[in-house]
Amino acid sequence: MATSEIEQLWVSQFQENLGALRKVAGWTTQQLADELGVARQTISNLETGRSPMTKLQYLALRTVFSAEIAKCGNRELAKIIKTLVDDPIELRIKELGTAGSSDDAKANSATEPDAPSEADDARPVAPASKPAAGRRARKNKERPLSTAMQALAVITAALASGTAAGVLTYLLFPNGNPGKNGRR
Predict the structure, then answer these.
(1) What angle do CA 68, 163, 157 make, to 5 degrees?
(2) 11 contacts: CB under 8 Å, gap ≥ 6
(3) Fewest C-beta in 10 Å: which of 65, 78, 105, 122?
(4) 22 with 43: CB under 8 angstroms?
(5) Residue 38 pLDDT exceeds 60
(6) Separation CA 36–CA 13 (nearest Å)
(7) Tens digit of pLDDT for each residue in 78-95?
């Protein structure tokens, strides 16, 4: 599965649950719009599916929700994001990867005798020992998600645990007063 397809799965899953996430955060449509600097109608259109969510909107929303989790220690919001968005997508990626890898392995074994297999992933192999075509095919198949997408998924998962939320809150607000950001 290509990286853009995986990212689109994340964006779609997030859009499907945007209304619930906003409510768990305790925001009205207008408050979330104000946080993002967009019109209330933009949020309403995203929640109802009248407008498709873009990757940029997804990243902005994830950032706003992650900041809310860190600022207010809203572990419930972090758990809801992980449960409604991240876990289902990770499961779908594993399912699609498992189904695709067995079909790919059969196809590769018929056409390329030295094609990389799942067993090859477990042991280090010098790059020169595999055929160039196999390396190119594997490289294209395993392109990672964008750094921003990975970071937001990791941050949300960490914040859901609670420990990271405490550390981030301390780092962001060392004097314990979120209103002044540590300045006097």
Answers:
(1) 60
(2) 53, 54, 55, 58
(3) 122
(4) yes
(5) yes
(6) 19
(7) 999 999 999 999 998 888
